Amino acid sequence: MDKKVRNWLIAFGAFFVLSIVFTILVLTVDVRASFNNPKLGLASMNEKVFNAIGESSFWYYFTQALGYLAILVVVIFAFIGVIQLIKGKSIKKVDKEIIGLGIVYIVIAIIYVFFEKVVVINYRPILEDGEVAASFPSSHTLLACVVFSTALIEAKKLINVKFIKENIIFLIEFLVILMIGGRLLSGVHWLSDIIASVLYSGVIVSGYYLAMYYLDTKTVKEE
User: Are 139 and 116 in contact (CB under 8 A)?
Assistant: First the structure.
């Protein structure tokens, strides 16, 4: 097995197990009424972190902007995919990375709808427009982590100038860190919401890279 494929397979398995274990912990450990939640998991930890950090309008609006930037990235790659489809007149002519990104974006949408509309695990510690809002996992964190992280592979492929490529990669990684920390500092999510988003993102991102590298090795063998 190719080394990259093996490493990403291990990463995918680790994130998958950790995400399941952590979700179970949120559902079963230290569950009690807190703030706007009738049943908040890991309540003591979440309350201590929230009380220590508080709320921040700056980080709230900043991370909202980062969320819009992530959506813009989605639109750009969707546009590239459509152009390739039109020019090639076949889905086979669309880069496998672009098709993979499309699947990734669909998975994000499914997770969002599931936890927002079907199974609400936590509500935000603060009201949103006077009403409770689903909080678990942090959709902004999930969106940014997945979209920016999966964009790395396409950025490496499309950009040939080393200096520009290195700086783009650094910027993307920095934006991911900013979203994770900023969303927590904004005070609109519990710590457990952020952790869950990072773990779920890890599953999706590692799954994407695993699939891409596996397809690369398969193509090489066929050639």
Answer: yes
Residue burial 44-67, b: 16+ Cβ < 10 Å; e: rest: eebbebbeeeeebeebbebbeebb
Number of domains in the chain: 1
Residues 6+ apart with CB under 8 A from 94: 81, 84, 85, 88
Structure tokens at 173: 């990684």
User: What is the tens place of the pLDDT at every residue in 124-174?
Assistant: 988 777 788 889 999 999 999 999 999 887 777 777 777 787 888 888 889
| Structure token pair of residue 85 | 């489809």
Closest listed residue to residue 202, CA positions, set 186, 219, 180: 180
Per the structure, the complete domain to which residue 124 belongs is given by: 3-222
CB 98 within 8 A of CB 172: no
Q: Give residues with Cβ within 8 angstroms of 132, minimum separation 6.
A: 36, 123, 124
| Positions of the chain with pLDDT under 50 | none
CA-based angle 50:54:59, to the nearest 5? 110
